[in-house]
Design goal:
Blueprint (H helix, E strand, L loop, with lengths): L2 E3 L17 E6 L3 H8 L4 H10 L2 E5 L2 E6 L1 H19 L6 H13 L11 E3 L4 E3 L3 H12 L2 E5 L6 H14 L5 E6 L15 H19 L2 H10 L2 E5 L11 E5 L7 H8 L7 E6 L13 H8 L6 E5 L9 H14 L7
Parallel strand pairs: 1-12, 7-11, 7-12, 8-9, 8-10, 10-11
Antiparallel strand pairs: 2-4, 3-4, 5-6
Helix pairs in contact: 1-3, 2-4, 3-4, 5-6, 6-7, 9-10
């Protein structure tokens, strides 16, 4: 795969009600026990469907009644039926599953097939894409050896990369995982910090540990760190190495210098995959120093074997408020005013 892609995902707010004739759709389900799990506590998942699609949704006995535009009631029906099948096989679902399936149905597939999003399986969980851009990103990681994930916080860039690293390690595709971050706040002068090397770098690398513990059993993470199968190190420690048979992730790459980024990218060895993530709106480098991530995105555009995926505020999956915060800052940076 070649080239750089961007997201077309809109923000997460309430969908405008289409000015079309309303239809009424009745969706039956066989087992009320599974239906209760599908709807969530106090029918909270139905409320989410109403909010996202601008329709009315009510549960009555073993049926759900949908009222709204033909397009959006059809999307709601497909999402409900798809997630009901997952619940009936023993899966646990939550608001994030509804949100993700609705986004895919509205934005990615013309027929609204909510089962079309990408997914990755680790020992602890199956992780499904929650936005079309996440699907694009996950497929790029599967198919390409060097992937850039660029965009705001909360879009899943680092978490999904770590999930794929665990996936490939468990299946023997790679022999080790290498996770790195620039320690910008300390100028990478780690010797002045108290403690041993792990204690010195932990404050900068903690988000990577958190992602690992979420996708792999804690005892395996600890064992693999002790044996070197999983290595977590500051960017300064990558110099002079060739990273072969590994899944390599550089997080917070917006805080690399031009020389650091070139150094890191040229570490890529045989049978290795590399994912570089960062948010150009949160550069912590000294004034006047250019970001290596911004430069790399410009220089490597169109280079064969490199894929870059751009996330936007519409891809934020933490919560709606975070998306609105990102959107407000983006508008301010562009010289505009955020929506009231």
């Amino acid at each position: 795969m070649t080239g750089f892609r961007g997201s077309t995902a809109p923000g997460q707010g309430r969908a405008p009600r289409p000015q079309t004739e309303k239809v009424r759709v009745v969706v039956p389900f066989e087992d009320n026990r599974f239906l209760a799990s599908l709807l969530g506590e106090f029918d909270s998942n139905l409320a989410l469907i109403e909010d996202r699609l601008g329709i009315e949704a009510h549960a009555h006995g073993n049926v759900i009644i949908l009222t709204g535009s033909q397009t959006n009631t059809q999307i709601a029906r497909e999402v409900l039926e798809y997630l009901y099948k997952r619940v009936s096989t023993g899966e646990t679902i939550g608001p994030g599953d509804f949100d993700g399936h609705i986004r895919h149905a509205r934005q990615e597939t013309p027929e609204g097939d909510p089962g079309g999003q990408a997914q990755v399986a680790t020992r602890r969980r199956v992780i499904k894409a929650r936005t079309p851009t996440q699907s694009t990103y996950m497929r790029a990681i599967e198919q390409t050896d060097l992937v850039f994930g660029i965009g705001p916080a909360g879009t899943g860039k680092t978490y999904l990369a770590v999930a794929f690293a665990a996936h490939f390690l468990e299946r023997g595709v790679v022999e080790r995982i290498i996770l790195s971050r620039p320690a910008v706040e300390a100028g990478e002068r780690l010797g002045f910090l108290p403690g041993d090397m792990r204690e010195k770098v932990d404050p900068y690398l903690r988000p990577l540990y958190d992602a690992l513990y979420d996708v792999l059993p804690p005892e395996k993470v600890e064992r693999d760190i002790e044996t070197g199968v999983i290595e977590i190190a500051p960017l300064a420690f990558m110099r002079g190495r060739t990273l072969a048979n590994a899944f390599v992730i550089l997080d917070e790459a917006q805080n690399t210098t031009s020389m650091q980024m070139k150094m890191f990218l040229t570490r890529l060895g045989e049978n290795a995959k590399m994912v570089v993530t960062g948010d150009p709106s949160q550069i912590d480098l000294p004034p006047g120093m250019a970001s290596g991530l911004v430069e790399a995105e410009r220089l490597l555009q169109g280079v064969e074997g490199i894929e870059s995926v751009r996330f936007t505020a519409g891809d934020v999956v933490r919560r709606d408020l975070v998306a609105r915060i990102v959107e407000a800052y983006d508008k301010s940076a562009a010289g505009g005013k955020p929506k009231p």
